[in-house]
Amino acid sequence: MRWEQLFGDLEGQWEAEVRRDLDQEVADRTRRERATIDLFERLAASVEAEVGLRLVAGPPLRGVLADVGDGWLLLGGDRGDRGGQSALVPLSAVTAVTGLGVRAAEAKLARRFGFGYALRALSRDRAVVALTDVSGAVATGTIDAVGRDCFDLSEHAPDEPRRPENVTGRRLVPFTAVACLQPAGGPAAT
């Protein structure tokens, strides 16, 4: 009888040790897997979620994560009664994100084109933008041309079209100096 209890106790200890080893292995694998996930993948898994952004400069932004690409994210505007702001933000300007889920998605769920390509679309559409740079300065105008790592902004009032007589200045802006670009609410060039 005592031997049965002894072997029963040993069996219980053995099972507990095996369970501890398995739990430790699962925890180690989970930590290793999480270490391979980057911000891009976390953002891609949260498209359509309401998020908050803190940037290197400017006020915090809140809105629906509308799109994610190679080095950028697009914060969508209003969705029903939740409100929100529209902004094109380079990932290098993001200091914190709230509202993300714990999941990650493969990069194939996001856009493959980079920040420059997105800027070229704004330039092509002659969109009037409000640029907040990493120092916190804000300028409004129209993106005239986009290079590999910089763009030309013709500054003008947001309520005026981009015409030579309305341009108050021109600036060359490196991509690394952009905190965010938002619609300025003005008319497009005619």
In short:
With 190 residues, the chain is α+β, with helices and mostly antiparallel strands.
Topology diagram in text:
Elements: H1 2-35, H2 39-44, E1 50-55, E2 61-69, E3 72-76, E4 87-90, E5 94-98, H3 115-124, E6 128-133, E7 138-146, E8 150-155, E9 169-174, E10 178-183
Antiparallel strand pairs: 1-2, 1-5, 2-3, 3-4, 6-7, 6-10, 7-8, 8-9
Structure write-up:
- With 190 residues, the protein is α+β, with helices and mostly antiparallel strands.
- Helix content is 26%, strand content 33%.
- The chain contains 3 helices and 10 strands.
- The chain has helices spanning 2-35, 39-44, 115-124, and strands at 50-55, 61-69, 72-76, 87-90, 94-98, 128-133, 138-146, 150-155, 169-174, 178-183.
- The strands form 2 sheets. It has a 5-stranded antiparallel sheet with strand order 4-3-2-1-5. It has a 5-stranded antiparallel sheet with strand order 9-8-7-6-10.
- The longest helix is centred in the N-terminal third of the chain and has 34 residues, at 2-35.
- The protein is rod-shaped, with a radius of gyration of 25 Å.
- The mean pLDDT is 86.
